Amino acid sequence: MSSEKQIRVGNVKIGAGASISVQTMTNTQTEDIKSTVAQIQKATSLDCDIIRVSCPTEESCIALKEIIKQSELPIVADVHFNYKRALAAIESRAHCVRINPGNIGDEGIKEIIKSAKDHDISIRIGINSGSIEREILDKFGEPNVDALIESTILNVKKFEDLDFFNFKVSVKSSDVLTTISAYRKLSTSIPYPLHVGITEAGPVFSGTIKSSIAIGTLLADSIGDTIRVSLSSSIEDEIRVGKQILKSLKLLNNSVNVISCPTCSRTLIDVIEISNELEKALENVKKNLNISVLGCVVNGPGEAKEADIGVFGFKPKIAKIYLKGKEIGIYNEYEIVQTVQDLVNRLLSKLI
């Protein structure tokens, strides 16, 4: 049920078989160009695909122009209430504009679409449970799935009637089951790319769980073309969680998958520290590799032989390391992380 139509946000293709892209959003004051650019650069270093920047003021729209010049990532301008902010963002060469039609109004939508056509950029139609049109909310009594879908279809038709089709759609709720049901219904009703996520998911622990359930469930059903994990946390956490969701579903090519045990009284090496260090050190490696880190000899040897690089506790603070199913040596605990990194580098350089 992947979308039939494809759009672009800058150089990133979305929909119709394109790779699932990961997005995040800056949380700096947009007028603070230096801090905003620094966040975008951090997102770039973590292989984020698209970044959104809020444009609530005239000054933020002016700053956006310089931010875009310094950004390697396509930028989506996030605009609410004042359609003139969207026009200013488009003039500043934003690659896409995110609007919620319910708080923009029909005349503003017409002006935004005209400018988007003139500049050949895409729009994201964002429908949230917290901002459904009053008449629809009165009809259903609450922001349920049917209310979300009716609002979405209504606004999609407005865009189509204005002869504009260069858009993606999101229909988010903070409730996991509502979000899943809404996207499932929407995916059979419209052909446009879908931006998937839980809105206001919460702090990093609970928000990660809610986002992983909703986004993972939908992507496993081939619903969704671009994702954002919305956490009350850092953009680094958002990107890492998003990437991990894609890795877990085998939707992210060229990435390292760290397999590690939950540890128990049999554990002979510090699996928690080692696996965390390796995951962080290898997060930007562009090669499909399975690396296992296990604490003892119960499952360790079997996992080690199946992984590209396998580590398991053999004696207290001592591990055996396997490469492509063959034992290469016995190492002290403090040597493990560097040894695995060296082996990965050798694999990348095709020296093995």
Structure description:
This protein has 2 domains: 242 residues, TIM Barrel; 92 residues, Sulfite Reductase Hemoprotein, domain 1. Helix 1 crosses helix 2, helix 2 packs parallel to helix 3 and helix 5 packs antiparallel against helix 6. It contains 12 helices and 15 strands. The two termini are 41 Å apart. It is an alpha/beta fold. It has an 8-stranded parallel beta sheet.
Describe the structure concisely for a colleague.
It contains 12 helices and 15 strands. By secondary structure, the chain is α/β, with parallel strands linked by helices.
Under CATH, the topology of the largest domain can be stated as TIM Barrel
Helix content: 40-55%
Order of helices and strands: EEEHEHEHEHEHHEHEHEHEHEHEEEH
Rg value? 23 Å
Overall pLDDT level: 95
CA-CA gap between termini = 41 Å
Instruction: Identify the CATH class of the largest domain.
Output: Alpha Beta
Topology:
Elements: E1 7-9, E2 12-14, E3 21-25, H1 33-45, E4 50-54, H2 58-70, E5 75-79, H3 83-91, E6 96-99, H4 106-119, E7 122-128, H5 134-140, H6 145-161, E8 167-172, H7 176-187, E9 195-196, H8 204-220, E10 226-228, H9 235-248, E11 256-260, H10 271-281, E12 289-294, H11 300-306, E13 309-315, E14 318-323, E15 326-332, H12 336-348
Parallel strand pairs: 3-4, 3-10, 4-5, 5-6, 6-7, 7-8, 9-10, 11-12, 12-13
Antiparallel strand pairs: 1-2, 13-14, 14-15
Helix pairs in contact: 1-2, 2-3, 3-4, 5-6, 6-7, 7-8, 8-9, 10-12
Supply database-style keywords:
352 residues; alpha/beta; TIM Barrel; Sulfite Reductase Hemoprotein, domain 1; 2 domains; five-stranded mixed β-sheet; 42% helix
